Amino acid sequence: MAKYDYDLFVIGAGSGGVRAARLAAMSGARVAVAEEHRVGGTCVIRGCVPKKFMVYASEFSHHFKTAKSYGWSIEGAKFDWAYFLEEKDKEIARLSGIYVRNLQNAGAELAHGKARLTDAHTIEIDKAGTKTADKILIATGGRPWMPKNLPGAEFAISSNEAFHLTELPKRIVIAGGGYIAVEFAGIFNGLGVDVTLVHRGPNVLRGFDDDVRSHLTEEMEKRGVKVMLGAQHAAIDKTAGGLTSRFSDGHEVESDVVMFCLGREPYVEGLGLEAAGVKLTDKGAVAVDEYSKTNVANIWAVGDVTDRINLTPVAIREGQAFAETVFYDRPMAFDHETVASAVFSQPPIGSVGLSEADARKQCGKVDIYLARLKPMKYAFGGDERSLLKLVVDCATEKVVGCHVVGPDAPEMIQMAAIAIKMGVTKTQWDATCAVHPTLAEELVTMREKYVPLGLGQVA
Ligand code: NDP
Among this protein's residues, is 436 annotated catalytic? Predict the structure, then answer.
């Protein structure tokens, strides 16, 4: 008789956990997965997927304006929030069902309930009893971080609630300057909500290329988002008319909803990691090595709970590398270098490799190629500009960064990422013939080095 109930017990049925569980089960291992909410995790249930539907829904208002410039008359267009939520929830339920079926088809068992470790091989699952496993994978993801000591913080919502608001607010204050803040600023603005985005830093999207950051802020403002920089909440008061956000710089803004997008934290609470002897990093994430192994010999962790690069495809690759290593005897470590990402702001961003500032620090001398232009689609009206930027390491002549703000930037960056990951040089990049007429062709036709003002260029 087997020593343990399972060969692998996975805690968390999100992107990373499901991929690892399926692959492990397909190797013939006896696998179980515990999930306390719905199968699919943040990405499918309250993240990337419903967010993208909201982006699509909200972009129509902008498309309607462009349509007018092409001769269309669009009168009386109205948005039905309740209808949208219903359709969105149907699709999310369908996708979650697919995840469940994929797990079952691979032969993995599913346990509904919160799981906690009582030692390195024993898992207690609410409503499903106690199980033992030879190996354990922690894939519990992250959850929104909310400030604890801010007066009135209890009146604010996080992204979790933004997907289920019973009514579309007339006014919203969004706090934060990261991915989620700028994406929801675009969503609510597109849906006709009066949006104030408040961020403590000098510009949004810290860590992204500085030209991208300032370009996005300008474009968001052109579309009507009010961006307040260098300010943060001091308090939120409930008033007869809604909520009053009081800021550190003395400003006050009235709104119906305040949404905090102040980062996410690894979800380790109540997991029993101490009982199993699993160590955390000083930021509270599960500490792992390059093979996603914790300090405990039979316990691994993948995805946002390890706080490496908190993106769905990264969690999937980490889950796959874990399964390949442990269940197929093919040691594999996911390479976290040069991972592209997209921000579904409006306009959206695609970015891969180093920002100009990071490249200057890491490579020394760099050449910059930059184009700012009006996308052809807006030739008949509209003030939108796109930004395309390449960062080239002078010593190796390699393209080490590519950054795009504009229509379809997320689609473009997937392709650019292949070349950059392969170590493409600027000469090879330029040898690629343009696809015309596109915005992307600008990327392969930038020949003149860009010298920013202050670095030698005359105004
Ligand atoms: P981010 O870490 O991207 O941004 C958090 C923001 O909150 C930053 O602007 C930060 O400012 C600010 N902040 C943090 N603490 C405070 C505070 N105490 N007071 C005021 N401001 C504060 O987090 P998000 O929640 O936006 O997203 C979480 C992660 O989810 C992302 O990093 C990304 O990995 C992933 N994600 C990816 C998406 C995509 O791929 N399109 C979409 C959504 C999320 P500062 O910069 O000054 O630190």
Answer: yes
